[in-house]
């Protein structure tokens, strides 16, 4: 739809920004009339102006990405969607962007939206400061609520196990049949799920100078636009506010529109109440950005551990490992490498890079692997009752060669509700520990860790359990790798199901026997 003259926007929307301008309005235009109807060109805007527009589009439910001020195809599509919703046809013209900015400013002022820097967490994010209340805190979280919507904030500054618990809980709460969104990087983790009842849960954790800073957001489906606005505003360290810079293109456009409307006798002044003070625990932005020290990188381990003379060592046990990078990194269990003075794969010593007892995972380093011959991880967690295949070297002194068994995911949690592990029905024997558990497409969904002690359970219950085995969840394994500088290779989202023979052949290519040597005590 094309207009020969400006439409009549709601003066309430414009008045908050224009009252000062109108007091001294003159016939002079910052934009000419022709320029107001020219096609919009985002390259003329500052980063701060583009961030403001992105935030406004998010409040309108049209934008769900980062408010980074980079105006790409996603931002332009969101702007066009907003225009269509307003009954306007492309191409987008300057007066339409001015109208969006004024409308957004009205919404920002109504709820007191501000970009706040929370110094202990060393992150910034948007809060509705004018309509925000502090809720009772829990052991791990500071909690806040938006008083006029279902939007809720929970803030945590903690360690890695707490972060794992947050994201594991988020994944476990996903509504069956829905596809969670996950992002796993060395210093940032994101999980977003749909829960029963239509609630959206979003969790983001960033490694900052004081530890892991986590922002957990939740909102009913009807308020997803608010959640998207906040999640897209999260920034490491200090960031500039949600505002239009004086003297910018948009403010000049607003001044021009104000003058046009004033000359037409359409302006009606309106006043707004001042913003409320930020709740306890939320701090105002400092006068200047506070530089953050560079996060520490995981310490590199020596290529191989210091070893006593080989003649003094004897084989103490064995387990399974599998290649996760072409550089020669392998994953196994921490208990497989515990107490080992020398680790060997195919008869050659390998180095231990990291081990985590809480996850029961270890990272070891062998020679570089043949290109492409590495285990790929599933991009999403395995579902309940999903088919899985387990590979390993059980009972190495009795059996020879790779052993492959099949089963399913029988529970999404481990013993006693342990969120780090899942229960599997595939048969597991001593020596399987550290082996891959893969889905029907051959993508890793877990790392075999143990089987239930049948004698212990029988003594306690009088019954012998059958096929009660466990694996560390694939999401936890990916997190462990990220923390130690190894990027997991992800399989395709729509990878085809493999026939059993091909699946076994692929597992044979990436799975290895790990031998543990030490001086006998």
UniProtKB/TrEMBL annotation:
Q: Where is the composition biased (Low complexity)?
A: 297-306
Which chain regions cross the lipid bilayer? Answer: none
Q: Does the keyword Protease apply?
A: yes
Q: Which UniProt keywords apply?
A: Hydrolase, Protease, Signal
In its keyword annotation, does this UniProt entry include Hydrolase? Answer: yes
Q: Name one GO molecular function term.
A: peptidase activity
The processes (GO biological process) annotated in the record are: proteolysis
Superkingdom in the source lineage: Bacteria
Q: Where is the composition biased (Pro residues)?
A: 286-296
Q: Where is this region: Disordered?
A: 281-315
Specify the signal sequence span.
Answer: 1-30
Q: Which Pfam families match?
A: Trypsin_2
Question: What protein name is recorded for this chain?
Answer: Serine protease
